[in-house]
Write a structure and sequence with these properties.
The chain is of the alpha/beta class and 286 residues long. Helices cover 40% and strands 13% of the residues. It contains 13 helices and seven strands. The protein has helices spanning 2-8, 18-26, 45-58, 73-78, 88-92, 121-124, 134-138, 157-165, 183-196, 216-229, 242-246, 254-257, 262-280, and strands spanning 32-36, 63-67, 103-106, 109-112, 146-150, 168-174, 202-209. Strands 3-4-2-5-1-6-7 form a seven-stranded mixed β-sheet, with helices on both faces. α3 packs across α13. The model is unreliable at 1-26 (pLDDT under 50). The structure holds adenosine-5'-diphosphate and magnesium ion. The site of magnesium ion has 5 residues, from α3.
């Protein structure tokens, strides 16, 4: 009798929530290596990597932000160039252990910085038989719950190293007129990496960034991206905001720069969505 009454309750009422939610929250979370990648520049990769890594750390997860872009934009938000003398070049080329270059940049948050010297690795690593696997080797037995990788805007050896070392991929797509150009290439790259080098790589989601609700084509782009990627598109979109644009200039993440802004709210939501998707997906499934 009591069961019948419960069944009639509409979805979302208190009675249906607790058991499921608790089971999901308790599930052990395997370590995840999440690459933010897109072959185009200026789509919001670095902004997303910095703020998602920061948010994961603030939630209590031991997190490493790993900067694979020789432009070093993510590293420069946290460290000056003199502080990045030891950087991933030495790990990827000289085979120094990752621990030799890592620096603490916050509670639960470490950084493996980049340097412009890493641009030389595009040629130098290509000549080595294990050149595409150097990051994967360096990350063996890492002690982090999350490694968040920022990547360069090209499909060279550095991006390949990132994709081969990752369990998950997030593709940021800028809500602009040219948004869908380039995403085909990125998807091709994803499938090639899965087929040839890293079958465990899992497309965690496609993230729409820098959306401007005042522009009607922004809605069309969201619809187009959703047509192609369906539920792979994150529910959270990142709007174009002044606060997000200016935060790197202040060398701050959005949670420090503007804790009550739309940007910080959206990145907190996105991080929760990423956590949920990591819990529900295993690296074995696409
Ligand atoms: N949501 C946003 N609103 C406003 N400006 C943004 C937003 N996301 C990124 N930007 C700015 O756009 C530029 C490109 O973003 P970035 O994250 O560096 O892209 P990528 O790493 O793909 O090249 C940067 O100047 C950044 O500060
Ligand atoms: Mg970048």
């Amino acid at each position: 009798m009591a069961q019948k009454t419960a069944k009639k309750k509409p979805l979302g009422t208190n009675e249906q929530k607790p058991k499921r939610a608790r089971t999901t929250r308790k599930a052990a979370l395997p370590p995840a290596v999440i690459a933010f990648a897109h072959l185009k520049g200026g789509v919001g990769k670095t902004t997303a990597a910095i703020n998602v890594a920061t948010c994961l750390a603030r939630m209590g997860h031991k997190t490493l932000l790993l900067d694979m872009d020789p432009q070093s934009s993510a590293s420069e938000v946290f460290l000056s160039t003199t502080q990045t003398e030891k950087n991933l070049y030495h790990v990827l080329y000289d085979e120094k252990p990752l621990s030799a270059v890592i620096q603490p940049i916050g509670d639960n948050l470490d950084l493996a910085p980049a340097s412009i010297d890493m641009a030389m690795l595009e040629n130098r690593l290509r000549e080595r038989v294990d050149g595409y696997h150097m990051l994967q080797i360096a990350l063996e037995n890492h002690p982090y719950q999350f490694v968040v990788i920022d990547t360069p805007p090209s499909i060279g050896v550095l991006t390949s190293n990132a994709l081969i070392a990752s369990t998950h991929l997030v593709i940021p797509v800028q809500a602009s007129y040219f948004a869908l150009k380039g995403i085909e290439n990125m998807m091709q790259t994803y499938h090639t990496v899965r087929q040839r080098a890293n079958p465990s790589l899992n497309l965690l989601g496609v993230l729409i960034t820098m959306i401007d609700d005042r522009l009607s084509f922004a809605r069309d782009i969201k619809a187009d991206v959703t047509d192609i990627f369906g539920d792979k598109v994150f529910r959270t979109v990142i709007h174009r905001t002044v606060r997000l644009e200016e935060s790197p200039a202040y060398r701050k993440n959005i949670f420090e720069h503007a804790p009550r802004s739309r940007g910080s709210e959206e990145f907190a939501q996105l991080t929760q969505e990423i956590l949920d998707r990591c819990r529900n997906s295993s690296p074995k499934h696409s």
